[in-house]
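Record type: monomer structure entry
Structure origin: computed from sequence
Chain ID: A
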Amino acid sequence: MVVGDVTTGTDVLIIGAGPAGYVAAIRAGQLELDVTLVEKEAYGGTCLNHGCIPSKAMITATDIAHEARHAEAMGIHADPAIDLSGMVGWKDDVVDQLTSGVEKLCKANQVNLMEGTATFVDEHTARISHGGEGQGSETIEFEHAIIATGSRPISIPDFSFDDSPVLNSRQALSLESVPDSLAVVGAGYIGMELASVFAKLGTDVTVIEMLDSILPGYDDDLKRPVKQRANDLGIDFHFEHTASEWYEPGDGIRIVAEPVDGAAANGGSEAAIEDERLEIDVETVLVAVGREPVSDTLDLENVGLETDDRGFIETDSRARTSAEHIFAVGDVAGEPMLAHKGSAEGQVAAEVIAGEPAAIDHQAMPAVVFTDPEIATVGMTETEAEEAGFEPLVGKFPFRASGRALTTGESDGFVKIVADADEEYVLGASIAGPEASELVAELGLAIELGATLEDVASTIHAHPTLSESVMEAAENALGHAIHTLNR
């Protein structure tokens, strides 16, 4: 590729090198297609550089410090010193190792890598603008295109990420010193994960949430241990309030939070709503109210594509948009906005372009929140099973009855399995507790393979392990669990 006023051609143009885009590129390369992958910032996208990987690195590091500090019951007495700049440096090393690995894998699969920002000129042409003075731009003609531009943090009025006291998740993960106090606006998965990280670093954390509980979309029994652990960490919550403005009264900043319309009527609810305007003094504020798709930079009108009212590009089960030769994968293609969902879609898009009979199946799509404790879901909830016409059969096993969980010092939570009472096929599962993110894979496989409760229960699991809890939950649904009382 030559930078300048030239035109080149490619079988597949992929815009965005996050987990959806780079996976699509590698798979397309494996299928012997000529592939050009355009990325404007860093290979690996938000997930590897600013989201999934760095946040989990920080969660792991702060967990180690917190556990050491609170291990007296195990006979361990320690008071670890936190060097945040060193922690961030280690996190950055992990990120660099992974992103350089992505670049090497792309090159090894004959993917043409190009830095720049892509916009569509017409149905088979895109313009790539290269950053930097004098870098210019070039034109690419393509047979197929895959849009994988991802998402960005949503901002709220009067809280610009350009103002130094106001942080998004990316900025929060790169702080050089631990703030004494922090307000987190939003109690979704990003807000709750980072609230726990900073609380374990010793920051006084206050969470402001417009709804009446944490983690919208998750069942109450999953939220309960997370909320209790957050309370134990000293995190304060103000539900049914919105952050309306901030100002600097002197040292630090003052956040003004207004009650949501109608909140006063909920005075008796669990949210314990204050019927008043709140003023909260903190050192800095993290806004984590969600993410929005990046679809407004592409000049989609030039290829006849439109987005929905949230900015998502509609696709079918083969990742195709309404323009059959253009695909969209990952966050830009709609909920759930999960890296592994994007990667699966990227593989499907590449295979469809290569003429393979591929399609996306979301029935066993796991979702994980890396809070303390972790929570994970896959498949249907009990309510969803009922709505789909099944008679749900539910089995549950508490981690307090798990020998391995007790030996880790983490015994809050449970494994719950939902099955069809008639045929006993596994329909879904939810887990709250240690290593939920790992345990959910077995249950996703059970759903994918059409396994029954008996299949899971009769599979011998090693002892002592956390995975035994999956077996016991299946046995509980069948009425013959050994280490917990049967329903």
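Annotation 1: DSSP finds 13 helices and 22 strands in the chain.
Annotation 2: Residues 264-268, 270-274 have pLDDT under 50 and may be disordered.
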